[in-house]
Amino acid sequence: MRGIRIVAALISIACFPLFSHAADLQFTSSTQYLWYQDLLDTLDKDEVAQYLRVNVGKLDKEGKLNLYGYGRVTKQMSPGDDWRGRLYYIYFEYRDAFNNHLDLRAGRNYVNTTAISGTIDGIYLNAKNLGPVGITAFGGRHVIFDEKQEIGNGEDTLAGASVYVDTVKYTHIELSYGNRYNNGDLARENIGFNISTTPHQMINIYGRFRYDTVADTNSELLVGAKLVPVKKLTLRGEFYNFKPTFDKDSFFNFFGVNNYKEISVDAEYLLTANYRVHAKYANEDFSDDATGDLYQVGVLARPIDELTLNVDYEKRNGFAGQLSGIRFNGEFRIRKAAILAGIDYDDFRREASRQGNAKKYWAAVHYSITKQLRAIVRVEDNKNFNFNNSYQGFAAVNFNL
């Protein structure tokens, strides 16, 4: 019954300020019925789900205090299965305090820095307008979700801080620190750095670096550049280096891991307002002379206003085998309705393992009953080494206020 209490709390909290102040309310509800075939036991399953998102602005006369909430409840339609709830976030936000120098969030909210990210039950502070400098700090109980429910306890915490500088040429530089404790013991501690700058209107240069102090290793490095030499052409090049690290008490620390390196270039060209092509190449390096080459190319076309078509082809050679696949999907709009459909086809050859192909066929219909009310139905069939036919889909009624 916890899930039902979550939904009731979101509704009641949203409605309360409407009686005390002329607040702005945005309310989104999605009621869904889903059916699918379980990958583990190959049994047909069906369940119902209710998603609720509530945004309430201008809770005070100055318009600085706001409330945001989002959660869901689900229930499998099988004997003995109870309702399950998940509260993604619910927090109060107070903006521009102390002469526009402080933003504050209190409650369950998602925090993100280069050093560490996660959902906390706690506080997030952003000290701003201090010249070009800003400071953030956050801390609280670390919220951990598994497949069905929320786990963790009060001794699971996540905290961090950052200092950032916004200066000329749209330059943003940030140094961050974060740690996480599991059951009161230090599990992770990271230092992060990121930078983004636009020295010229045609080019943007960016980078990200993270160092794991517990594992005493560089865990992530990204360096990239985005170039727009002419209005219709966008080029991008990146170098990425990643070494997996784990919590201090994790079982996986007993295993050796390799660095992963990737060099990629991609381009997108706007032929006309209704036609766009893109291509990408990436060289993958898994260490120990294990490498791979990835090629991608795609086209997006809108031959008429009501019709959008998209096709992507991907081919990969090298470590662990060969893979090629094509994905095609389209959307056709008719007044209040939209018809969508797609086909995915993959052909794979695994080294010293299986080979074959996988296919997915799907179709969907969206219909706007009113400006606030929309109905969606989607069906899908998967054919692969696990299933001859795996049917799944959902039907939903979405309400926006």
Explain how this protein is built.
The protein is mostly beta strands. Among the domains are: 90 residues, no CATH class; 122 residues. Helices cover 6% and strands 70% of the residues. The strands form 2 sheets. The chain has a 22-stranded antiparallel β-barrel. Strand 8 and strand 9 form a beta hairpin. The longest helix is centred in the N-terminal third of the chain and has 19 residues. It is globular, with a radius of gyration of 25 Å. The model has no long low-confidence stretch (mean pLDDT 90).
Key features?
2 helices, mainly beta, 401 residues
Q: Point out poorly predicted stretches.
A: none
What is the average of the pLDDT values?
90
Q: Round the Cα radius of gyration to an integer and report it.
A: 25 Å
Strand-residue fraction? over 45%
Termini separation: 26 Å
Q: What is the overall shape?
A: globular
Provide a short characterization of the protein structure.
6% of the residues lie in helices and 70% in strands. With 401 residues, the chain is mainly beta. It has a 22-stranded antiparallel beta barrel.
Q: How are the SSEs ordered, and which strands pair?
A:
Elements (H helix, E strand, L loop, with lengths): L1 H19 L3 E14 L6 E14 L7 E12 L7 E13 H4 L1 E11 L4 E14 L2 E10 L1 E2 L4 E2 L5 E11 L3 E12 L2 E16 L2 E10 L4 E14 L2 E10 L17 E13 L2 E11 L5 E14 L2 E12 L2 E14 L2 E14 L4 E14 L4 E11 L6 E11 L1
